[in-house]
Amino acid sequence: MNTITSSGQPGETAAGKRTVWQHVQVWYRASRPFTLSASLTPVLVGSSLAFRDGTFSWWLFALVLLGSLLVQAAANLVDEYSDHARPEGNQKMLASYKVIALGLLSSKAVKRGAIAYFATPTAIGLYLTAVSGWPILALCLGSAAAAYFYSGGPRPLGTIGLGQPLVFIFMGPVMVLGAYYVQTRAFTLEALWLSFTVACTVTAILAANDIRDLEEDRAAKKATIVTWLGRGFARWEWTLLVAAAFLIVLGLALLRIIGPTILISLLALPQAVAAVRLVWHGRERAELALALRATARLHGFLGILLAVGVSLG
Question: Per the domain annotation, does 5 fall within a domain?
């Protein structure tokens, strides 16, 4: 499925004829902007708790947010490069963000882009370590390794059934606690419990993605919970993850661990109901793609509401 252009090289187009704006658009597409809310939400939630505690720096918040977004974008580029390099990657659907297969960028360009995207968060991480202490270095190194090895390396972790556990840990507790620690130099049980809410909904996004891609993943011999146990099990898993996210919010309010303003998050329930219907009733790939988008919207909307509710508490 490699695109052969007039240059005779896969994935290479008349890049020199593009305007600067067109180059920006191509790299923006390659970064898969629709996935970046998964990195935005945990930073917002962790930072909102620090804001409530009276320890907050806009400068540190901006650095953590930028670093998180760039690591996510870098992971997306690694996935793009690795997918194109593996023979089984050619069996996947040609999505609009597949810039190599579409001939918008060469494999070498995407590889260089991934390195550049990782370089900036590395510099940010070193600065934050100097400001906030060694725990940030440990979190940053772990996050960078997870981002790369999820899709890269000789045996990507996302292809051997470890995708969901990695996403739960690193895009939930690690990112929320990291964002909180940068501001406060402390870890708390409040931050940990909040991180589980984020972890549940971001893992639900991956579950919805795996539900959609079942046949494609089986053809590519990619191991996921869905390829192992089927869509029926995955739908129940998705439902339990979403339900757990809201139950944690209720528990935090009822136990007065966090103020009652956190209940603002329940305004996301209608979005959750809409997503439930799509996940359970979708049968065709197009219908399941709608379920995936609805889950991503739920994660983002719930995260914003959670951040607002916590900061007002």
Answer: no
Instruction: Give the integer Cα–Cα distance in Å for 33 and 27.
Output: 10
On the question of pLDDT at 304 being above 60, the answer is yes
DSSP character at residue 10: B
Structure tokens at 228: 């192992």
Question: For a pLDDT cut of 90, what percent of the chain falls above it?
Answer: 64
Residue 69: closest CA among 35, 119, 102, 99: 35
**DSSP of 131-153, one letter per residue?**
HH-HHHHHHHHHHHHHHHHHH-S
Predicted pLDDT at 5: 36
**CATH number for 261:** 1.10.600
Mean pLDDT, range 271-297, rounded to an integer? 93
Task: Give how many domains the chain has, as a whole number.
Answer: 1
Domain contains 48? yes
Q: How many residues does the chain have?
A: 313
Task: Enumerate residues 6+ apart whose C-beta is below 8 A from 82.
Answer: 89, 151, 152, 156
Read off the tokens for 37: 């809310």
Q: In terms of pLDDT, which residue wins out, 210 or 8?
A: 210
C-alpha span between 177 and 194 (Å, rounded): 9
Is residue 219 a part of any domain in this protein? yes
Residue 272 CB contacts under 8 Å (≥ 6 apart), including other chains = 242, 246, 298, 302
Q: The whole model's pTM is what?
A: 0.88
- pLDDT (tens digit per residue) in 175-197: 999 999 999 999 999 999 999 99
On whether residue 3 sits in a domain, the answer given is: no
Q: Which domain holds residue 147?
A: 15-312
